[in-house]
Structures are given as structure tokens and as C-alpha cells.
């Protein structure tokens, strides 16, 4: 977290205020005001700043700010904030939750301000009797007619060879995506095991018996072992250094005690010599020599105490480095898990699309014959209860992110 100094406060305040206004205007345009409800695969850009009244400066929460994706569970995972429900909420509600959570967690007198904007909407999908069915990026004010245009328009006909080729391509893509889905599921299982502090993991039960999964588990186990070995060796090296420094501290303490005893003996000797010198029985040079020896020994004691303090500081540094190593390892795993979950969710959606393409590959005979047929549109939309429902649509029906559009000609099979 970076703090902006007071001399630059006014200029930064104006600049950040203008940037915030632009960000809010952009978010409003993209999300059709603040009423847009977030969902899985929506990508958000989050910026968090805090005005510190006492210091009169801004604090930039750079460790929280960044780009995030709503996961398949409908949650956002942010540093310090943790997992928070995002599906079904607006960007304004998410921003309020972030600011309140940070204030409560750290006991801040001033609540941090969060700017949350939709950087990229979750895609929409279109299938059926169109030229290029598939997944497409969502844009505001999208209608069924616009979506059909984006997908290349209605299917213009194809011969049997084209239909067969489309089927082969769809089946090949499905096979590749199925393999990728298994790999990501195994990777997620490995990351969850590492975050739980385990040294071993197993594939999820529902895929454990599938072909190729054992090899994937072996690869992820090797990655897990390598990372844990690297971390263990670095922690062990710091622990060894700490042990050496603690031994040095003990040794320096013993040397200091020895020097102190020698100083006491020298002082006793000096006391006796001083008495004899006053009586003229010894020369003053012997007194001076003894005093010089005492001063040198006291100087050595100070050097030993200074060396002891330095060794204790080095012990503290080694302990802090060990803590940082563990925290960094956990943070890297959390980021990797978020990325893996996002990829897994995208692959799962693409698999559903490929199944639809395979199902419809045989429904082009009428189009190939050039027969004009009535066209109907059906939207498959997930409701607030998490259940999907079908909606009969027209060309001017508005499309929402995540919708699946089924384009059906009379006489062709409806993609399931």
C-alpha cells in the first residue's frame, strides 16, 4: 500500500477524482447503469484507495486493486477481503462490501473507497441454424437480430460433405476440451491440497477412474513435490542460519562474562598497586599500565555486546524472511487457484456449446436444399434462483450476458 505525500495531495486529489468520474461513467455505459447483476465469468477491474484524515494523504491499496473474475461459485476472491458473493449483485454493492470489509478487518477510522467496473462481460452463446454458432463477446444493447448478425447470419446451406466436416470438427473440439477439463480439475485438486498443507492429493472421485487421469495426477504430484521441496530447503537454510546466529550469541555472551571477570580481577590488582604506589613501594608506570589494560578489556566488552545485538537482529531478519516465504507461497497458490477455476469454468461452458454443435450437425438438409423456412428464437437464461428457463424471443428481444440463443428453423432439430 503506497501513501501519497501531502505536498502532492491537491494535484493527486483532482487527478484521482477525474479518473474516478471517468471510470464510473464508463462502468455505467457498459453495465446499463448500476442495475446490471454480475454473474459467473464477468471480469471486473477493482481500484481501492483510502483517504487518511489524520495524515492528510491518500493510501493506494495496490495489493487489493487489480483485475478479477467472478468464479463458477458466483464469488470473488480478493486479498484481505477473502471470498465474497458477487453473482446477482451490482458493482456498487461489491464496492460497498469491499470498503466495509477492509474497514472492519483493519479497524480503520476512514473507510477505503472502492471503484468496481465491468471490464469484460461474460459471453453469450448462439447455436442452431446460423452460419457460425459459438461463443461471442457481449456488447451493450445487444438484441437477437444483432447476435445472429455477429454469428454470420442464418445458415446459407451446405452440402453433405460440409455437414460431415462440421460434425468431425465439433467432435474433435469436444475431445480436446474434455481432456483440458480433466487436467484443470486435477490441477485444482492439487492446489486445494497444497493450500490445506497436505503433501499428497487424489483426483476427484467422479473422474478418478477415467483414462489418462492417473498420468495427470502424477504430473501434478511432481509439481507439488518440487514446489514443496524448494520451499522446505529455503526454510531449512534460514533455520540453519538462525541456529548459527543463536550459537554465536551464546558464545559472545560467554566471552563477555570472561572479560568482565578479568576486569574485576584487574581492578582488585589496581587497588592493591595504587596503595603501594602511594607508599612509594611501586612506580606509577605500573599503575598506568594496569589502568590501560582495564580500559582495553572494557572496550572489548562493548565490542562483544555490539556483536551480540547485531546477531540478534540477524536472527529477527531470518525469522521474518521465513514468514515472508510462507506468505508468498500461499499467495501464489491463491492466484493460481483463481486462474485455474476461471479456465475450468470457461472450458465447461465451451463443452456445452460443442455438444450443441454436435447435436445440430445433422440438421442442415433443408437449408442445403435452399428451402426458406420459418425461423424461431429461444433464449435460455439463468434466473436469480440459479435455474435456467427458456424464453420465446423475437428479433428485437434484448440479450443479457450469459444467455444462450437457440435459432431454429421449422423442420430442423432444436439443440438440446
TrEMBL record:
Residue ranges annotated for the Soluble ligand binding domain, each copy included: 124-159
Keywords in alphabetical order: Coiled coil, Signal
Chain coiled-coil ranges: 301-328
Region forming the signal peptide: 1-33
Domain AprE-like long alpha-helical hairpin residue range list: 173-351
UniProt xrefs under InterPro entries: HH_AprE-like, Poly_export, Poly_export_N, Soluble_ligand-bd
Residue span(s) of domain Polysaccharide export protein N-terminal: 32-118
Name the UniProt record assigns to this protein: Exopolysaccharide production protein ExoF
Organism expressing this protein natively: Aminobacter aminovorans
Amino acid at each position: 500500500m503506497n501513501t501519497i505525500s501531502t505536498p502532492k495531495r491537491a494535484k493527486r486529489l483532482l487527478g484521482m477524482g477525474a479518473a474516478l468520474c471517468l471510470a464510473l461513467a464508463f462502468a455505467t455505459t457498459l453495465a446499463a447503469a448500476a442495475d446490471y447483476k454480475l454473474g459467473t465469468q464477468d471480469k471486473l477491474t477493482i481500484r481501492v484507495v483510502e483517504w487518511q484524515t489524520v495524515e492528510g494523504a491518500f493510501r493506494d491499496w495496490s495489493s487489493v486493486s487489480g483485475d478479477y473474475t467472478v468464479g463458477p461459485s458466483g464469488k470473488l476472491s480478493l486479498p484481505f477481503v477473502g471470498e465474497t458473493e458477487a453473482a446477482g449483485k451490482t458493482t456498487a454493492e461489491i464496492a460497498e462490501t469491499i470498503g466495509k470489509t477492509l474497514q472492519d478487518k483493519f479497524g480503520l477510522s476512514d473507510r477505503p473507497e472502492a471503484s468496481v467496473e465491468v471490464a469484460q462481460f461474460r459471453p453469450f452463446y448462439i447455436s442452431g441454424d446460423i452460419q457460425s454458432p459459438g461463443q461471442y463477446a457481449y456488447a451493450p444493447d445487444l438484441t437477437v437480430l444483432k447476435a445472429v448478425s455477429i454469428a454470420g447470419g442464418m445458415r446459407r446451406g451446405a452440402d453433405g460433405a460440409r455437414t460431415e466436416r462440421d460434425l468431425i470438427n465439433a467432435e474433435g473440439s469436444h475431445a480436446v476440451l474434455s481432456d483440458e477439463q480433466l487436467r484443470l480439475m486435477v490441477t485444482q485438486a492439487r492446489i486445494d491440497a497444497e493450500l490445506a498443507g497436505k503433501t499428497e492429493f487424489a483426483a476427484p472421485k467422479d473422474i478418478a477412474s477415467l483414462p489418462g487421469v492417473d498420468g495427470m495426477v502424477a504430473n501434478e504430484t511432481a509439481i507439488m513435490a518440487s514446489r514443496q521441496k524448494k520451499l522446505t530447503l529455503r526454510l531449512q537454510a534460514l533455520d540453519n542460519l538462525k541456529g548459527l546466529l543463536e550459537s554465536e550469541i551464546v558464545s559472545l555472551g560467554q566471552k563477555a562474562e570472561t572479560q568482565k571477570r578479568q576486569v574485576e580481577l584487574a581492578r582488585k590488582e589496581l587497588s592493591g598497586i595504587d596503595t603501594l604506589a602511594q607508599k612509594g613501594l611501586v612506580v606509577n608506570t605500573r599503575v598506568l599500565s594496569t589502568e590501560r589494560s582495564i580500559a582495553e578489556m572494557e572496550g572489548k566488552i562493548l565490542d562483544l555486546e555490539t556483536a551480540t545485538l547485531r546477531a540478534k537482529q540477524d536472527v529477527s531478519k531470518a525469522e521474518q524472511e521465513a514468514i515472508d516465504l510462507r506468505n508468498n507461497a500461499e499467495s501464489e497458490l491463491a492466484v493460481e487457484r483463481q486462474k485455474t477455476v476461471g479456465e475450468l469454468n470457461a472450458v465447461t461452458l465451451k463443452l456445452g456449446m460443442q455438444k450443441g454443435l454436435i447435436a445440430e450437425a445433422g440438421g442442415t438438409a433443408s437449408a442445403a436444399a435452399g428451402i426458406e423456412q420459418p425461423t424461431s428464437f429461444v433464449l435460455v437464461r439463468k434466473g436469480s434462483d440459479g435455474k435456467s428457463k427458456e424464453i420465446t424471443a423475437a428479433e428485437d428481444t434484448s440479450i443479457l450476458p450469459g444467455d444462450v440463443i437457440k435459432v431454429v428453423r421449422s423442420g430442423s432439430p432444436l439443440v438440446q
